[in-house]
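Retro notes
What went well: the complex prediction finally ran end to end.
Inputs used:
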Amino acid sequence: MANFLGEFEQLILFALLRLGDEAYGVTVRDEIESRTGREISAGAVYTALERLEARGFVSSWFGEPTAARGGRRKRHYRIEPAGQRALRRAYEGVQSMARGVRIKIAKAEVSSR
Amino acid sequence: MKPPILPRALLLLCLRGVAREAIVGDLDEGFATRAARDPREARRWYWRQTVGSIGSRWRPPPHFSWRLSDLWQDVRFGGRTLRRSPGFTAVAIATLAIGIGGTTAVFSLLHAVLLRPLPFADPDRLVAIGHPDATGRPSNLGYLTFRDWRDRTRAIEDAAAIRTWLATITDGPAGTAGSGEPERVPAVRVSWNFFRLLGVAPALGRDFRPEDDRPEAWRVVLLSDGLWRRRFGADPVIVGRSIGIHGRQYLVAGVMPSTLEELVSAHYYAPAEIWAPIGYDETTQDACRSCQHLNAIARLRPGVSIEAARAELATVQSALQRQFPVDYGSTPATMRGLRDELLGDIRPLLLVLFGAVSAVLLIVCANIASLLLARSASRDQELAVRCALGASRGRVIAQLLTESLLLSALGGVAGALVAEIGVAAIVTAAPADVPRLAAAGIDARMFAFSLGISLIAGLAFGLAPALGGSSRDPQLSLRAGQRHTADSTRWGRRALVAGEVAMAIVLLAGAGLMIRTMRNLLHVDPGFDSRNVLTLDLAFVGPAYAEDPAVLATQMRILDGVRALPGVEAAAFASQIPLGGNMDTWGFHAEGHPLSGSADAPSVERYGVSPEYFNVMRIPLKRGRRLASADRTDSARVVVISEAAAELVWPGQDPLNRRVRMPGIKGPWYTVVGVVGNVRHYELSAAPTPQMYVTESQVIDSFVTLTVRTTGDPRGVASAVRSIVIREAPGVAPAAAATLDELVSKSVRTQRFAMMLLGLFSGVALTLAMVGVYGTVAYSVARRTREFGVRLALGARRADIGRLVLAEAARVLAIGIIVGALAAIALTRLLGTLLYGVSPSDPWTLAAIVLVVAAATFVAQLTPALRATWVDPTTALQAE
């Protein structure tokens, strides 16, 4: 359980990797939305991030307040080595499970239409 | 561009800690970006984000061990439990629905009529003033009296007079929607400051001005919103133009707001749709001090108590009595708060209703309590199993709570339905002259109140066994055959049942008294024969009827036409008819009578009738002769008096050929030519007042009632009679026809209404009490099956078992019946003025009611008692 990552958590960790220093609530959400086409709520993003932080997979710090945010500070996130390991394991797991079944998935999608 | 306020507030409210700052900031930033592209979409996005964020972050507080999933589980489980015992559920929901719905409906009506403040500015300073009538309430007064009281009483800040007026709209302004058939409209004439006094202003146009209120200038009107919409198509152009009333032109000054509740005209006459200035001064013919045909309201100065104002008014009137002894004699003045005056009559009826429905609500609570007690006690085992399997005490309580709430919620929904139907039904059935009833709707606060009461009852009694039971050692309950219901529970249930029976007796006693009242009233001889008589009110007003001969000739033509109709026996005009809602008393100055010539001379109800009137009404002749067509305008004036009038003026003497001056001391002489039977003029329950009849041809009236006696159903000739009136008397719009039977029935409508409602409520109460008795006895029998088995096994006879059950129930019932009878004697007094011909503590009614209740409750316990005697000892002892 401790090292298991849910799908949504994986998406968030990938977003942190992609965004590097630019990662905070808005960019994380935008990154996931623009790549997966799913609309996700800010609350859900933070719920997941807080859980990941509690497990030591990410760390966070507050930035400067900005006018566009109504004078509220950004909360920046960075992926930690433990998070990178967990993500790699999870991704490899998915990859190894997915090997050879890609075509079948595609077929299933076609036949279900 | 700012994010929408509401979701933002929700976010700030629901989010905690550092996440709040981060999330709200993120959303603001995201919103700003999106709003630059598409503000609408941005707002929608913000809403979606808010809902999603709050939803994904919601956590119950840590100390809150009871979880949402548990609630759902409890609800579903509760639903299944209720479905499993459909009888219990149906009875409980129906009981709750009756209790909640009934009380909500009645409380709502009570609020709409009695409790709501009068719809006028500073209503506590408004009073009614006038000479006292027989009951001491302010009644009519003359114009000069009104003026002097207003000017001389310092406590009175301002006052307004009001008199009845019948307006027949003959035409509207050219080119507007108002032109059409002539239409009779209830109207009043009022002092110019009438609406100012009440604190109401026209919605359109202007109020009356002092210069409108003069004898030569009063042809100005204000219209009600309803009339304006109905007759004039809500056309604002009408203001400032003239409409025709009785063929004369009246300027429309304005239209009153739709929200106006003009209770004053409704109270004294009929709800007015047209107001005109009264236009009196001291030169007006009817302005004299003894011309008592006006009503008046006044506003007291701030800080003056009504007692002080009344005392001052009395002083003013004493001075007037000394100044004008001929006009006033010993006639006093009085004053009453306007609220009491307008709503006082209906208060006893509504309070009785309130009492009745409160009793029903109490019975409902008792029933629900006893149903829940019985039910949860029989679920000891189930609860014990749940405890044994590890359910916490809190968990069991939560489950019972959910069930109670579920039941109450279902009862509440059904109750809302009952309330909706109840309000509509009562509004329909209530006497038409109950003020402010039409505006009644379900009052949300009343609904919440009734629902709350039943909820509390449900919770209290639903939880009682859980609180006791769940702390108990589950082993005890699980062990076969252990029965240990606390004595307190059993006594509680008995007390509840006794209370129900007592309250049912009180309600039934009230209903019984009202039924006897109705019987007495309907057996009163009104002095006339109300069967097969059609009545139709007509107003001969306007330029065409300015001269008496024209009126008389038109009336004759109408009578000739009506008499020629097939099925018509007789037809006559009358200035007023019994139970028609009119009052017209004349001073009766008999020759040689000690009081003649003074203001204290006897007042006698006057009817101006055509000679055939006695045949139409079948009023019997006692002495002398009736009026005849030979009594004409140019012959000697004659009068026929009633027996009561003869007894009042000439006690023990022969009234025939005596002479009398009317209506005042300066009036012409009339000779008494006959004596006829009394009629009941005001109400069936009031003793006949002194009456007299003069012939229409000698005293012409403009406002008359056409009365027609038919051989068959009088409704059958109604339309033919109307067409004759319309043909022979253009511009005289007849009012809706009514049969005399309808007027009689209308005159007892308050009592009928009380009888109906008390009957309904007492029926419900008795039914509920029977359910309660049945439930208690059935429950006790079920609990004692094993005991009965043992008794039978040891040799008891089955009849002994039955007797045992019945005797135990009988003790409870006897207590209930005794308490109920005592309470009934104390409480039926409240019916007071509603009763007629029967005493509130009538022993026969009470005895009959006690018998009915005893019989009904005996029947209710019979089935479970019989079931007890059918116990099979073998099964009973093996059952566990």
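What we learned: Chain A has a mean pLDDT of 83.
What to try next: split runs per interface for comparison.
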